[in-house]
Design a protein that fits this description.
Helix content: 25-40%
Strand order of the largest sheet: 1-13-6-5-2
Radius of gyration: 24 Å
Structural class: alpha+beta
Number of strands: 13
Length: about 220
């Protein structure tokens, strides 16, 4: 089940935590969840979220190819983009227009390929069922819609994102032991990554071995 939650309402786990064999990101209330992530680990904001882009401000109106479709409603008057050859300078509205054109070209390619594969040999057009599937697949965009993948912290704490609730399975004793081994293995990998560039004092290493087990012991 997918839910919407504000970032402020989400509590992340401090150590690797598994529900069954699913590693969760944290909790919303008492419900364990995995945050829906898109290209590059980008969180999925809900439709209608307002985003600040370099060339303006817009709202999320859809998703495509694990990226966000954002309808730019206000342009940044100070924005300039200089092309690679430094022969052209584009302002915000021109940049949006170019990105919108590229988005439409990608959609047109999909439409062309789909028609080539599924159009009727007799009529030369798509059957109604196929046309309906194509229409449902392609989102509706405007003349200022751009497709973006964002990095870093681009959302506010009050913004809502999509998360999947992870159901708690009824585990057998063997499955519980397997889940615990997964958690310990992930925790040990994290500890190893943190310590790989620094010598570990013997006392700390002894504590780690006691907590996570050593190569010769059992979890």
């Amino acid at each position: 089940m997918f839910i919407e939650t504000t970032i402020n309402s989400f509590i992340g786990t401090s150590t690797p935590t598994f529900i069954g064999e699913t590693r969760i990101d944290g909790y919303v209330g008492k419900r364990p969840v995995v945050l829906r992530k898109m290209q590059g680990g980008m969180l999925m904001p809900v439709l209608g979220t307002t985003l600040a882009l370099p060339y303006g401000t817009g709202k999320v109106i859809g998703y495509s190819d694990e990226k966000l479709l954002v309808d730019v409603t206000e342009f940044n008057d100070d924005y300039e983009f200089i092309n690679h050859d430094e022969t052209e300078i584009y302002d915000a509205s021109e940049t949006v227009a170019r990105r919108n054109s590229a988005l439409r070209s990608s959609f047109n390619t999909i439409i062309s390929d789909y028609n080539r594969l599924y159009r009727s040999e007799e009529t030369g057009i798509l059957p109604k069922s196929r046309q309906a599937k194509l229409d449902a697949f392609l989102p509706t965009i405007t003349m200022t819609t751009v497709c973006v993948a964002l990095e870093g912290q681009f959302l506010k704490g009050s913004d809502k994102v999509v998360a999947q609730v992870v159901a708690k399975p009824k585990l057998t004793p063997a499955e519980r032991r397997k889940q615990r081994r997964l958690e310990i293995a992930d925790a040990k990998r994290l500890a190893d990554a943190l310590l790989e560039d620094a010598p570990t004092p013997s006392g700390i290493q002894d504590e780690l071995d006691e907590m996570f087990g050593n190569d010769d012991g059992e979890f």
